[in-house]
Amino acid sequence: MLPFKKTKALEQKIDNFLDLILKSSLVLEAAVKSYLKSNMEDFNIRIEEITKIEHEADKDRKYVETELYTYSLMPESRGDVLGLLENLDKIIDTSKEVLYNFLIETPKIPDEFKKGYVELTEQTTKSVENLVLAARAYFVSSLMVKDYITKVEFYESEVDKITTTLRTNIFRSESLKLSEKQHLRFFTHTIERISDMAEDVSERISISVIKRSI
Amino acid sequence: MFFIFLTSGLFLGWSLGANDAANIYGTAVGSKMVKFRTAAILASVFILLGAVIGGAGAAHTLGKLGSVNAIAGSFTVAFAAALTVAWMTKLKLPVSTSQSVVGAIIGWNFFSNSVTDYNSLTKIMLSWLASPILAATISVIMFKMMQKMIEKSSVHIITQDMFTRLGLIIFGAFASYSLGANNIANVMGVFVDVSPFKDISFYGLFKLTNIQILFAFGGIAIGVGVFTYSKKVMMTVGDGLVKLSPIAALIVVLSQAIVLFLFSSEGLEHWLYTHGLPTIPLVPVSSSQTVIGAVIGIGLAKGGRNIQYKTLGRIASGWVSTPLIAGIVSFTTLFFIQNVFQQEVYTPVRYKLTQSGLSKINNKLLKNEKIKKSLDKIIDKNFENSIALKNELSKNVKNYNLVLKLIAQSRIYKIKVDYPKLIDIPDLNYNKAQLKGIKRINGNTYDYKWQLYEDLSKSKPWKLKKKSIENKLYNKSLKKRLNFLYHTFKIKN
After folding, report:
1. How many domains does chain A have?
2. With an 8 Å Cβ cutoff, is A142 touching chain B?
């Protein structure tokens, strides 16, 4: 059996991991904003930051995984918990991927669309923020889980709306070539994916909650 | 020779360990919250402790049902019960050691033409009904409480997991202790009257009475059963029957522990007595039924959707089929042991009602002219067994309790008071006045138990007090001592 001290350490690792998810989404938002302002110095710092976060999160997740299996903790909900951590981890990976796409492909974003991209990133961050809150609530069996999941769903649909408007405007634009339009569409899609993932994970949480009810 | 006969009791202990101990840790091991090894070690140790320390309570009620008075009889009764349990477990039928033993004892009663005390039997059967209902009630209440507590407390699931594990282990140990205390009477109860063990003292540190030594053997047999066969049963109980969450498993274990404890604790009985509250009969109950009651309680608390009424029906049918099968097996085996192996499976007891014996019974019905006349006819008449006497009595006496009383009063039981015999017994715990009372009648012989009592109770410390709540406990312990004297001073005809 796991001694009390170790139990606390494990809880802290999970908590830390959730902090990292939250940080990654905030870094994503700050980086996209820097890119749009053409502040490449800050953008590069953000890239470094998110790489570090990803690395640390991987380490935390592996630690939790090993401990849960070694001490065969929570035989009932271990699968759910590990699945949840894995999917949360994917959100960091995707955020990093988005930023690397910006770094490598350096899309040209006309000023008229910049506002749309800022909104898109902001709402995406909010969906991830609420997902992290839902996950925290799940770990302490709080009734708040439902509220946060509702919020995640709300922000995901906001993101959908923004994407639709943005894409419509991009493709109606007369000053852009089709290749440029397609490139811009790719970047709306890649950011939008994060909120979709957040919604998927929140659905997993709501199912785990039902499964875990004693 | 005694040890050869004891093997059947050990066989019964083994099947109890394989079957009933699995009920306790089944949900915990099945849900992988507790390792089988941990569960097996804890269950064995605490069952043994429960049997030796707290086993006396429930043994008494079983003794009242029928006192198997020959060692070959004890062997056969235990063997028949064990066979029934092992066989029904193999067939995956719900089975309870308690029911099996009761059925086998009644089989012996039929074979030896002894009267079955239906008052005790009813008491035992009611407790079979009460124990699952009680377990279900407790688990419903605890389930609701636990739900509220988890919602309110915001404990991290990992801490919760740790506490659940700890709870399963601790309450499992408590349940094992209670199971040992409650069910050891099933395993070794029939050997109590024929036990050849002497009380022993371990360098003055602690003492074991002969019954405790007997119970320790039973406890060890149960432990062997736990280690060798219970894993399979645990997996079935924990995984196959109903899927329980770890916290639900914890509630099941706890309600089971409470119920088993209620039906076996002499301490609790004492507390209830002294506070003028009604007591719970100390009878061996079935751990299988208790665990199923507790699981049903969880189902009810969840809204009653997932209760399998078919399983419920099967269990209820077990109440009838198990004792019936055990009774038939017991009767048949007794026949074989007696006629094929030429063993004495019961010592014939003869009955004769005397005028003075009759005059000791204080009952209004005896003033009735018709009853008086009918009893006059059988005075000083010999009866070969209690059934014959009962049939004769029942013709005119319709009151069942009075019939039982008359039968008890007519039972011939030769006693010779041999004071020096008592001196050899360590831990006798009699006070000076009591010893003086026995010394006064040293060398006397009696034909009936009541005669010894009549003579002995002329000394005040041996006199039973008037029936009342305050005196209940005093009388109970005095009766225990009297029974000990009857047993110690008994002589062959």
Report:
1. 1
2. yes
